[in-house]
Amino acid sequence: MAEGRASLDQRTARREKYLAVVPVSDTELRIVSTLRDTSTSVADSTDVELIHDLRLEATITLPDLVITEVTGHSDQQPYDQCALTLAPLGRLRGLTLKRGYRRQVLERLGGTQGCSHFLTLALELSAANVLSIYLRMRAETPNTPTTRADGTWARTGLRVEPGLMNACLALAEGSPVQRRALGQHDE
Length: 187
Hints:
Helices cover 28% and strands 28% of the residues. It is α+β, with helices and mostly antiparallel strands. Strands 1-2-3-4 form a 4-stranded antiparallel beta sheet, covered by helices on one side. Helix 3 packs across helix 5.
């Protein structure tokens, strides 16, 4: 080991991500996605190095999920050149958080076109699709054990977003959840 160089087992590294979806109106959501990377000394838990502290904020329309506004904020990045990665985030404006979103984000922000950490946050915005569906469902129907068991919750989901059919194992066509949602009770 080179003099002055720490051993790998002397520090830990941690990544914390956060995503919030906040209704602005019946036709608009505000999304905040954050990423924070830190490294902490194994010997001294107060020795914490902040590596990245980034935030991506976006406004999307409902129900089409089009990004109408997007801004990036950096409280900590390791290099001066990292500040140049904020401007390319504007390329997300006009994208839809539906099928094809991931590919379009990679085309606009991947590699040397941006920052891999802001890319992570931009890709995370797609989770707002699922969360927006939940919020729209919840505005119509309480999410309770009873509404889940009697099919009301899933029926509301299919009305709000027909694409929920076959979205996963539980929502597969013919599944117990879908049969209850469609009023087809087991014999």
